[in-house]
Design a protein that fits this description.
With 351 residues, the protein is an alpha/beta fold. The strands form three sheets. An eight-stranded parallel β-sheet has the order 3-6-7-8-9-10-11-12, with helices on both faces. Strands 1-2 form a two-stranded antiparallel sheet. It has a two-stranded antiparallel sheet with strand order 4-5. 36% of the residues lie in helices and 13% in strands. Helix 4 crosses helix 5. The radius of gyration is 19 Å and the shape is globular.
Length: 351
Amino acid sequence: MATSPIAGKVQTVLGPVDPQTLGPTITHEHLLIDFRVVFQQPGEASQAGLAEEKLSLANLGWIRHNWNSSIDNLMLIDESVAIAEARHFFNAGGGTMVDVTSNGLGRDPLALARISRATGLNVVMGGGHYIGATHPEEFERASAEEIASSIIRDIEDGVGNTGIRTGIVGEVGVSAPWSETERKTVHAAVIAQVQTGAPVLIHPGRDEELPLRVLEAVAEWGGDLTHTVMGHIERTIYSRSALKRLAETGAFLNFDLFGHDSSFYPLAPHSYMPNDAQRMDQIQFLIDEGHVDQVLLAHDVCSKHRLKQYGGHGWDHIIARVVPQMLARGISREHVDRMLVDNPRRMLTFA
């Protein structure tokens, strides 16, 4: 693996920083995102009109259960709202947010820099490519090496002419089943990791065996599993044996949906979204098995209904409510700090 010019540093939208300055860090968020790629039209004629309605108290209950069937809910595009909401995290003691709005989701480097300055938060910007539905047509013909070249350029030189550099390759989207162009984009992410020393973060489809298959491919392509994050653990891995096998790879495991509780997901009816107590059960299992140093925490806020302004839990949820619950359950302060401070610091530091 090549040595990066910023090896030993964390790359934020305002430039490289000393990892010791990060503070409490949430490792999978979206300050701004156009998430219409996951929109699903309501199947019932009586509910079709709800898809076009603005989020309000009148439809919030419906949206909480059908969050990806509301176009307005999937559009986090107001910079002033992002600043106000991110300040809740800062005021609760938060230091760093990792925004993994990758290519295909409306990534906005200049806006992220303005949000960082306005809030005082470190913001780490994602790169690489989301799921196949967002890929440009030319990816069908492009090689992994060709795709990697633009990812590397974003890391080393900045996005376009902004000078704002990617600090993590992700979220790199993988669907179930894993498509051919998605295999290329994951391979491209690994090539970029090897050349630059950047961390990589994977978004897996809802298939319990898929995360392990992806990590096996990452290792086969020469990637560093100890510098790779597998996301959405709680809604993808349900059995303890599968969770243990995944942890044994050495990869970071992102429990990144805290505050999100949606029992039914029509695109994958065999799966479900656990609640926070169930997430903490999974994390306790990993702690008991000796894997606390691989656990990361986040909310993956990617829709309006999870922001405070719209009746949601907000970005301070983990610090303000989850951490006290963890401590009350008997998880030690030392282990909490490792998951919220030490592990993100190691993960985000360029090799």
